[in-house]
Amino acid sequence: MKKYFELDPWNIIQDKLDSEDNRIAESIFSIGNGYMGQRANFEEDYSGETLQGSYMAGIYYPDKTRVGWWKNGYPEYFAKVLNSTNWIGIGVKIDGEALDIAKCKVKDFKRVLNMKHGYLYRTFTADIESGKKVKVEAKRFVSIVNKEIGAVKYSVTPLNFSGTIEFSPFLDGDIKNTDSNYDEKFWSEVSKKAENGRAMLTVKTKKLDFYLCSLMKYDILKQGKEYEYKAKTLEREKFVGNIAQVSAGENEEVAIIKYVSNVTSRDFKPEELAEAGEKILQKAYAKGYDELLSEQAKAWEEKWKESDIIIEGDVSAQQAIRFNIFQLNQTYTGEDDRLNIGPKGFTGEKYGGSTYWDTEAYCVPFYLATADKKIARNLLIYRYKQLEKAKENARKLGFKKGALYPMVTMNGEECHNEWEITFEEIHRNGAIAYAIYNYVNYTGDKAYLGEYGLDVLVEISRFWAERVNYSEQKHKYVILGVTGPNEYENNVSNNWYTNRIAAWTLEYTIEALGYVKDNEASRYDEIIKKLNLEETEMVKWKDIIENMYYPVNEELKIFLQQDGYMDKEQILVKDLDPKELPINQHWSWDRILRSCFIKQADVLQGLYFLQHLYDKDTIRRNFEFYEPRTVHESSLSPCIHSILAAKLNKEDKAYELYLRTARLDLDNYNNDTEDGCHITSMAGTWMSVVEGFGGLKVKNDMLTLEPFIPGKWDSFSFKVMFRDTLIKVSVSKDTIKINNESEKDIKVLVRNTPYVINALKSIIIYTE
Amino acid sequence: MKKYFELDPWNIIQDKLDSEDNRIAESIFSIGNGYMGQRANFEEDYSGETLQGSYMAGIYYPDKTRVGWWKNGYPEYFAKVLNSTNWIGIGVKIDGEALDIAKCKVKDFKRVLNMKHGYLYRTFTADIESGKKVKVEAKRFVSIVNKEIGAVKYSVTPLNFSGTIEFSPFLDGDIKNTDSNYDEKFWSEVSKKAENGRAMLTVKTKKLDFYLCSLMKYDILKQGKEYEYKAKTLEREKFVGNIAQVSAGENEEVAIIKYVSNVTSRDFKPEELAEAGEKILQKAYAKGYDELLSEQAKAWEEKWKESDIIIEGDVSAQQAIRFNIFQLNQTYTGEDDRLNIGPKGFTGEKYGGSTYWDTEAYCVPFYLATADKKIARNLLIYRYKQLEKAKENARKLGFKKGALYPMVTMNGEECHNEWEITFEEIHRNGAIAYAIYNYVNYTGDKAYLGEYGLDVLVEISRFWAERVNYSEQKHKYVILGVTGPNEYENNVSNNWYTNRIAAWTLEYTIEALGYVKDNEASRYDEIIKKLNLEETEMVKWKDIIENMYYPVNEELKIFLQQDGYMDKEQILVKDLDPKELPINQHWSWDRILRSCFIKQADVLQGLYFLQHLYDKDTIRRNFEFYEPRTVHESSLSPCIHSILAAKLNKEDKAYELYLRTARLDLDNYNNDTEDGCHITSMAGTWMSVVEGFGGLKVKNDMLTLEPFIPGKWDSFSFKVMFRDTLIKVSVSKDTIKINNESEKDIKVLVRNTPYVINALKSIIIYTE
């Protein structure tokens, strides 16, 4: 496997310009703050391989659906996160010659993503065509303190000549999405202004009328001192900038500091954008670059206090887990309940930046344990707010009642248009119900049920009740024509996971209704009235719960992937020619569908979610049957398997699977990091450590731990928030140490023994 | 139901300009000769609703595939029959004012498709804006005697004024396909020339380099006498024409006769096209319009002698069956084994003019019985020639051996890109094998097996042998992940029809190998060697035949559509709200898939093909189960059901189903005739009469008949060719009359009684 980056516990380091794989590095070195994100494109011109990407959270475009053959029920559009105004750009000329490192000799190239303090640094020396040599340094960040602010410091030092360095900082809104279905550009110009030392550009999406106003201001420094310049202004369609020149002697550093504010009509009225952006920009400018950067470093240090995982004895694992946590924290901050987490976050266009069930299945647990509960709560409320759209979606497919949440969405409407996914991968509805259970179970916030939860649970339950049908042949309720999490089979009947999560949703909805009825009677009456929920519906739900059909293999005592699964030729992944892996790159779709190979956890996903309901032997039998048939060709697969393997004391297997998820992007394991990082699966990596190696779960309102340490590690530690208590769990070869970092006592169950840890105290449990 | 056209036994008549539904009439009134085809677009300008369509058989374009989500194995392009040079066009101006009947008052409009003699006639009077009135008549045809020739006679008579009539005959190659995936035009110009009285245009496809050279020459007549004109020439990109003016007194008819030859690089070298086309044009011009038309009438009368069906007592049925036969004969003549039959023939762009299994399943029987055997043979050889491509196609999907014929093709390569069809609707391979059986069985031409048949049969059998897998659970061979003829379910397992036709193919291949071995030993050895066919393969085939799994319902004693079909909610079509029909226009795809409704004959298709292997009770039980669940939303469905109903003595049902197929296009039953006529299903209509009401089949090399007459009809008669004998079968309420119109005696089995009919004699059997 190619080694792309240097190992370091706190930094991602690239020590050579790799022009062939530059797009991979651009993804990895992305920076973001939950409000905006930026791929690691170069500030100066670059004619080599690059995927330009500047993204503003929540700004999307309804790009007309592209389809070979239309099916009734398909959505009209696919929502795409928009590649928006390039605000980092700074053209550089050296005595009139443009700097473009694709076209000159580059030495001492280094790119560093400083995860501890949240910035991106780059340096190199370039021999340009004229023979002149310059040293360049660039540092930039998007602020997590002042979310609209980004800043770049870019310096050039002539090494073997004296001459003129020209900087042309700009804002370029003439941007396109590489994934545009019809090669259209999505932005049009609203207004612009370029003056000496500053510029403003407002653009607007051609549909939906999102406005983005970007403002820039900059200083030029020579040998660290402010330099008076008189710039020329640049203006063209959707583009503003300046051209400023500085004469520099040999070894004299000249630098530009560019401050940018990006404000949008999601937060301000369009006519107020320029003024609002100007105020924010002035405030940041007044603070100055160094102060902004120091705020940034402090704020990141605070984040790490809550969410860091420390691994000793394995720097590769240490770097990987921090990279995952860093990217997750860059992508979603939970402050805005209109936002969610796209599978690639702000690191690429792929998957349209939209919301998938990844959020509920993988991200909610991460935010539950590493942040205030309101963060996960906001992720839940996002779906609550989209309930009406989910009901419309069910109507569109012909259901009289209930809600079917979309597979892929930006505003609650379905965007995806493969029938086998759009119409059939309905298990997503189950994950959305499960996230409510998970949230309430973890936080103890049962009030959520009456406030928001029941509306969603009841409508999802209604969908299931209509989606099942009674088989006169089986004398059971069946669910026909679905795609499970294993997308390597489509239109199957009685996918065990789907049937199980459907019945479980009905059970939990009845339980939740019971809780609210018993504890908030008047709220209960309100809800029943509002939802027009009839007793007969609940009677039907109970009948479905009791008479749901679950495919099983009696002989092996396992739950069956789907009806007819055992008719497939049973081969194991280990018996495949490794050259044929991943099968999705080597096999026809036809062959994949007919094979027994499973893309990602499916039966096992159900056993993971519902592990409190199944004994270990059941989980073991299913794990031992399915894991060898699973190709893990979704980034969401290994983590679930790793956690279950840990639970089953298969420590080597747990570690092996953990490795597949931890450095997925850093090692470009799936050969697709150039499109962006697998943000949502990073939460799965975190889960592998905390739920897998840490064995963390909540049972009967108590935090429980069953830690073990992978053989290669000396120790590892993680922090979790649990019901307003922050604890740190440190596991070494022979001890488990738990620090209670808060002002409240907490009772924790460790390997089935309860321990009380007093406020600000710790305990050590000796394990050898 | 809207009545579009007048009833008449030999003509299709439209007696009013229906501007809203003009595209429907354009389809219905299409003319063609197997070499080229032309929708009934108007010669003069028309700004109303129109779908321009001029097609040259075998000239297609590999239009880049359009897809929402790519799957491994998809084809790079979709082949489209090309809309090509508009050669019928004649602009008309009246005292400088353009004639456009969308923009003036039209009276006495009449359009007639004369099926007996093969031409299209149109007349109307128009009040143009200036208040001038003209009478217009236009007659045109594409010659079935001189295939490259088309001719138009177009006359204008001023009714209330004297003035100048301007004709501008043209050839317009600046044409686009409405169904172009990326809005491209597919033709570029090669050369052109316009002179007084004539013009030439050569265009070339932008891919694959098909050349089309069109030449025109014309006369102008005044009161029937040749008129000397001096025309202006017109030239622009991909366009040539003339402008000629005639002064006409009140009630003086002026006319233009336009002769066109269209020649292509399929028949001539590109550099020889202009000369070849010129020769052909000159020859036709020398004959003159009246002679050409009279040749055309005679040739069509000959065709009718072989293929007419006469129905007395039901003019609607009479007109319909003739329309179907006429369109089939216009579409395919069997002279060119590189050609095949597109589902819409030359009447529209839809389905790309490509080849489907429709040809083998529906068209082969028609041509077998109504034309020389070489016609059907050429349809078979078409597939033989594409065998290498079918092998490549199987390799592409990962099969080590065998051939999978494409679902949709122009040159043997797959064009279609829906995985559930492209990869899964593999039963098409069975129909291609079946057509060989059908051809040999009907014609007795067993030499075909050794010559071409075995190659195809062996490679298809190899495909089946690899496509099945042995289910350790069922202890049977299964076929997983298929779509049957019923496209309203996808990716099912053990579709009875597919399993049965697969096993049948193996049986027939073994039988055919045996025949060739026993009768042409040296040829057999050659084939075995060439195909590298090993004994073990045949052993495996026999094992599959013996151990194939067939889903059944024991209780109902029926073959089961597919595994799990009985888990579906069982509803009958008659219980659906008629407003929800057709379900494909009213239901989401999801709902359709989950329902028990069947799009077209599936189990019953198998029982139709293999009726010699099943007793009537078996067919009856299956018919009575499936027919009520079949929505017949493919035009290919009712005919098969009608034939089986006839066989089962369900005469009313047979007639009811016949009505759905017979006037499908004339009554625009499926609401899509505007896209073109359902050419391939027209062969199914013919089958309904001959195989259904006539009860025709071949048993033990003998023609057998079991006729009955629908209650509404007084009599019907049809002709069939059987092994060089032409017989005419006439059925009335109380007699069956069989004329032997050839010089050989023939033995026929009628209602299980054998009769010998001597050459040129007839017999009458009294049935009441």
TrEMBL record, chains A, B:
Coiled-coil parts of chain: none
Species in which this protein is naturally found: Clostridium neuense
Residues annotated as domain Glycoside hydrolase family 65 N-terminal: 14-266
Gene3D superfamilies to which the protein is assigned, alphabetical: 1.50.10.10, Glycoside hydrolase, family 65, N-terminal domain, Maltose phosphorylase, domain 3
Keyword entries, A-Z: Hydrolase
All copies of domain Glycoside hydrolase family 65 C-terminal, residue ranges: 696-756
Classification via NCBIfam families: PRK13807.1 (NF010380)
InterPro entries per UniProt: 6-hairpin_glycosidase_sf, 6hp_glycosidase-like_sf, Gal_mutarotase_sf_dom, GH65_N, Glyco_hydro_65_C, Glyco_hydro_65_M, Glyco_hydro_65_N, Malt_Pase/Glycosyl_Hdrlase
Record domain Glycoside hydrolase family 65 central catalytic: where: 322-687
Keyword Transmembrane: no
UniProt family annotation: Belongs to the glycosyl hydrolase 65 family.
MF GO annotations: hydrolase activity
Protein name, per record: Glycoside hydrolase family 65 protein
